Amino acid sequence: MKFISEPITPAEGSFDFADTPVGEPPLPRRFTWRKTEYEVECILQRRRESSADATHGSGEMYARKHWFRIRTTDGTVMNLYFERQPRSKAQRKTRWWLFTIEEP
User: Can you give the three-state secondary structure of 69-85, one letter per residue?
Assistant: First the structure.
């Protein structure tokens, strides 16, 4: 497994709304990373990362990241995540990240 932690660019119109559970972001079925386009063959695993509200003291839990372990059409296994709240104003449009990659 290789640690990457770089943003990916979802292809316009490639989001899969039909297969998306309620409360989860739709996964882009095609995306670009390092000038190469990848196509999602299947989702191997989904999970959510939550944490307590630290600003209001309510104790409510909020989804912070949605993780997807996927296999692409070329056989590569990747771990992607969607960040619900951007890290900074400069990164507010960067929500999808490639975390790790396992090459075939």
Answer: EEEECCCCEEEEEEECC
* pLDDT tens digit sequence for 10-19: 999 998 788 7
Q: Are 10 and 16 in contact (CB under 8 A)?
A: no
CA–CA gap between residue 50 and residue 43 (Å, rounded): 20
Residue among 88, 104, 80 nearest 5 (CA): 80
Q: Per the structure block, which two tokens stand in for 30?
A: 């095609």
Q: Let me know: does 94 contact 86? Beta carbons within 8 Å.
A: yes
Return the C-alpha torsion angle 13, 81, 4, 69, nearest 10: -90
Phi then psi dihedrals of residue 76, to 5 deg: -75, 135
Q: What are the pLDDT digits (tens) for 22-42? A: 778 889 999 999 999 999 999
